[in-house]
């Protein structure tokens, strides 16, 4: 029975730390895919607006109260989707700065997500631009690794 803990060498601790950072990076990268939820919010909002205008063209005049209710519901949906995607952006930024995990597919998904977030005006635009700047600064790291 070993009463005393044997000290680990500094080499074994240094080898464990990058493995843990890569694992943390992979977990945060998967969680960052929550950013793609903003695309769903944008699509549902566009669908709602298109359906409102189709109803107006089919039936002549639209009831302003009904149109305002549907628009407010679609805007509420996009705000909820945007809040979820901001959590994904935070995970992505932490993954980029804390971990050394880099994947080209992940980079492409992040670029797509930042473009979609830029299209979700007004709050998503600011977050999308900031995230696009971070991706642009870190792009060489994704090019070097496969």
Describe this structure in words.
The chain has 146 residues and is mainly alpha-helical. It is built from 5 helices and no strands. The chain has one domain (17-144). 81% of the residues lie in helices and 0% in strands. The longest helix has 35 residues, at 64-98. The protein is elongated and about 75 Å long. Mean pLDDT is 79; it is low at 10-14.
User: How many helix segments?
Assistant: 5
**Net shape:** elongated
Please give the share of residues in helix: over 70%
The H-and-E topology, N to C, reads as HHHHH
Structural class comes to mainly alpha
The poorly predicted ranges are 10-14
Overall pLDDT level: 79
**Largest pleated sheet:** none
Beta strand count: 0
Total number of distinct structural domains: 1
- The N- to C-terminal Cα distance equals 46 Å
| Rg over CA atoms | 22 Å
Strand content: under 5%
Sum this structure up briefly.
Helix content is 81%, strand content 0%.
Name its key features.
146 residues, mainly alpha, 0% strand, transmembrane helix, DUF4064 domain-containing protein, transmembrane
List the helices and strands and how they pair.
Elements: H1 10-31, H2 37-59, H3 64-98, H4 104-119, H5 123-144
Helix pairs in contact: 1-3, 2-3, 3-5, 4-5
Transmembrane segments: 27-53, 74-98, 110-137
Keywords: Membrane, Transmembrane, Transmembrane helix
Protein name: DUF4064 domain-containing protein
């Amino acid at each position: 029975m070993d009463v005393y803990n044997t000290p680990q060498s500094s080499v074994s601790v240094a080898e464990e730390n990058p493995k843990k950072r890569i694992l943390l990076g992979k977990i945060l990268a998967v969680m960052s895919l929550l950013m793609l939820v903003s695309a769903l919010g944008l699509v549902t909002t566009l669908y709602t607006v298109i359906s409102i205008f189709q109803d107006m063209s089919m039936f002549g005049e639209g009831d302003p109260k009904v149109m305002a209710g549907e628009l407010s519901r679609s805007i509420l949906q996009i705000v909820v989707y945007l809040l979820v995607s901001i959590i994904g952006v935070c995970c992505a930024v932490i993954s980029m700065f804390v971990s050394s995990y880099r994947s080209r597919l992940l980079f492409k998904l992040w670029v797509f997500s930042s473009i979609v977030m830029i299209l979700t005006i007004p709050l998503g635009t600011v977050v999308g631009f900031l995230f696009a700047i971070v991706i642009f600064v870190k792009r060489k790291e994704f090019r070097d690794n496969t």
